[in-house]
Structure formats: structure tokens, C-alpha cells
């Protein structure tokens, strides 16, 4: 996986669906992306705050693989980095197959721990009608498949920029598959 890299970084101080791209984001250990509406020790997603604002924030940093953008483009959808709300767009790593607890080292200093899958929501169809069916569906065995990226917490802070390498450190076995967080 030595070719894994950061393609784009995004943040938004407001709770909006898409996040504008930037040249650099700063990760803060235990908090998330500096200046992003989802940064915090406790939940920051509006629906989760309404349910229980004291829960830990397991969704500090959202990552999506650029290969997903490529795939949905083949189905007629135009999606650019940050438009699905991710903070970090990657290439060269199958994010969805990583086990829970995987550590991703991003650039020279930053590190995040994978906590689970993003649960795709109806806002995806408001962004582009029909796109939600590309992000969540049932497979041939009836299992729910979520493909809208992964969520993580920040273990080590530091800057993250497009072009930064990504190093993968798998947790000890047995590996736990990702579930929604």
C-alpha cells in the first residue's frame, strides 16, 4: 500500500453537506480537524447532538477514497473531493475493507484511528438525485453495504496536505469489520 496518498483535504466551519477544499488541514489529537464543524471531543453531528450530546465523537475525521468518485462518475454522477462531506479524500487504499482500529498515518505527523463506516443519509440524494443508491444498497445476500467512506478519531495531530503519503497500521488480530458509527 505504499502508493496510498492524500488527494484532497476539506473543511467547513458550518454544518453543510459539502466541504470546500483547501491546501491544508490541521488535525488536533482527540478533537478532529481545526476549524471544522464536526471537530470536538463529544458528538458534533446535529442529529447525534439531539439524541445525546454527551457521547464521544467517533466521527472526528471523515475519509472517502477517490476511487469511489471515479466509480460513480461511470454511472453518470459528478462528485469532486469534499462534496460528500469528507475531510480527506484518498487514493490507493481500500478504506472500506480496513478493520476497526486501523491506524492511518497521514503525512509526517498526523495519525487517525478508524472507528467505523459513515452511514449514508438522504442528504446525498439532495446533493445529486439517485446517488444515495450508489452509496448504500443490499448485496445479493441481503446484507446492507455502506460505501460513503469511513470515520476516524485523531490520535496524533499535524498538518495534512494533498500529496501526503498514507501508511496503514493494522490492529492486532482478530480483526473487527467496520460497522456504522
UniProtKB/TrEMBL annotation:
Task: Drop me one GO molecular function for this one.
Answer: molybdenum ion binding
InterPro entries, from UniProt? Answer: MoCF_Sase_C (IPR005302), MOSC_domain (IPR052716), Pyrv_Knase-like_insert_dom_sf (IPR011037)
| Superkingdom in the source lineage | Bacteria
Q: Which SUPFAM superfamilies match?
A: PK beta-barrel domain-like (SSF50800)
Q: Where are the coiled-coil regions?
A: none
Identify the residues that the record assigns to the MOSC domain, covering every copy: 20-169
Q: Which PANTHER family match?
A: METAL-SULFUR CLUSTER BIOSYNTHESIS PROTEINS YUAD-RELATED, MOSC DOMAIN-CONTAINING PROTEIN
Q: Output this protein's name.
A: MOSC domain-containing protein
**Gene source species:** Catellatospora bangladeshensis
